[in-house]
């Protein structure tokens, strides 16, 4: 198992375990996640227009990984009962898709960070 896959798996399993066992309800941060996502989208567009340096790329990739870790935490907890925002049993297929997208995005950002650090 190489470093990129191992790092992504450890992060994903750690966040999932934390989301399943904690008493804190992270589904209340839905609005903050939307705002964080919009800020990252605007920052990405600005980086395309203005160009990016090495340090800006590392900061952007780190914040992207953090963003999708928070989305993974939100999505896992939205499957659990007793949360402010919870999905119905009919929504399990889209929820699985959301979790899959979160894991892929975390893997991509961690891979980008490792690539930037090694260059």
Mind explaining what this structure looks like?
- Belongs to the BI1 family.
- It comes from Pomacea canaliculata (Golden apple snail).
- Pfam families: Bax1-I (PF01027).
- It contains four helices and no strands.
- It is mainly alpha-helical and 119 residues long.
- The longest helix is centred in the last third of the chain and has 27 residues, at 92-118.
- It is globular, with a radius of gyration of 15 Å.
- The mean pLDDT is 86.
Q: Largest sheet, if any? A: none
- Which range best describes the helical content: under 10%, 10-25%, 25-40%, 40-55%, 55-70% or over 70%? over 70%
Q: What's the N-to-C terminus distance?
A: 21 Å
Gross morphology is globular
Sequence stretches where pLDDT stays below 50 over 5 or more residues: none
Mean pLDDT value: 86
- Count up the domains: 1
Number of strands: 0
Strand content: under 5%
| Rg of Cα set | 15 Å
Q: How would you classify the helix and strand content by structural class? A: mainly alpha
Question: How many helix segments?
Answer: 4
SSE order: HHHH
């Amino acid at each position: 198992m190489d470093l990129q896959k191992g790092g992504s798996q450890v992060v994903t399993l750690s966040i999932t375990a934390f989301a399943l066992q904690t008493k804190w309800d992270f589904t209340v941060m839905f609005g903050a996640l939307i705002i964080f996502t919009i800020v990252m989208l605007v920052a990405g567009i600005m980086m395309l227009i203005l160009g990016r340096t090495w340090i800006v790329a590392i900061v952007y990739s780190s914040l992207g990984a953090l963003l999708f870790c928070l989305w993974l935490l939100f999505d896992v907890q939205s499957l659990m009962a007793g949360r402010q925002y919870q999905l119905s049993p009919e929504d399990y297929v889209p929820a699985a898709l959301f979790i899959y997208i979160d894991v892929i995005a975390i893997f991509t950002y961690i891979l980008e960070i490792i690539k930037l650090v090694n260059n």
